[in-house]
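User: structure tokens for this one?
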Amino acid sequence: MKPTLVLLAAGMSTRYGRLKQLEPVGPSGEALLDYAVYDAYRAGFHRVLLIIREEIEDLFRDHVEGRWPTDLEVVYHHQRLDDLPGTPPDVLSSPAFEEARGRRTKPWGTAHAILTAKDHLSGPFALLNADDFYGRESFEQALALAADVDGRPDSFGIVTYTLGDTLSDHGGVNRGVCQVDEEGWLSEVRETLDIRPAGKGLFGKTMEGDPVGLTGNEPISTNFWIFGADIFPILENAMGAFLDEVMQNVDSQPEFLIPSVVNESLASGGSTVRAVPTRGRFLGITHPPDRALVVRGLEGMVKDGEYPTPLWG
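Assistant:
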């Protein structure tokens, strides 16, 4: 079964101030998701699932239709707060959940996003952010990983980048630092916040606020995962524990994140994840001034003949 490319595009872009997912950064007004789809299409992906918020669907349709190839299947899926597959009805109707839901101001998180899309994903799929640039090589590696995990129960994959290649010149970034053994198996993803240069090294902090020293050579997650349908029972089980946390802390805004679910599954022996490093170039926009660097990077790749302009001529 051919894999699907799943683009996480429901984010609020709070730090950026406007919709990063459709920000024009290419020489002909392309957004970063256009480059992801272009590279994936060249690698052999012919189906795209866009996970978005309902209120921005028209913006995405206006951007996509007439731009992407006509033989590329594009599916639009809405991430809704009330869509919680596998959650018992008594939990959804409980006063604690209703109070937590009423205070919620943003989507539940990346793990919730793909869980709500389960009906569209019966086979292997590559999952990534719609507002990052990953490079052609990474999609070729993802396609090979998808073929490797297809039909192997609870076997998944991740394409990793080198931390030093994913930093911002304009402020700290959050990255999932990967612990990978000598044989290439992932053992843990440690979410590390506000990573930035300090002295001769890099420093960030843990989720608890403790300082972390880094070299810049660490493999990191940029949310480029390869899953099969076996991920959905794992997500449903983890969602129950997450909602318990939400209902016990109604004033907080916790997120149901893919690395947290994967970490728990790895720790329990419920799954394995093959980590494959890529030499592909990574570009991302965390802070508004990062846009200029992305624009220059894409202009340089177009000038070097790596991409046409416009992408879909």
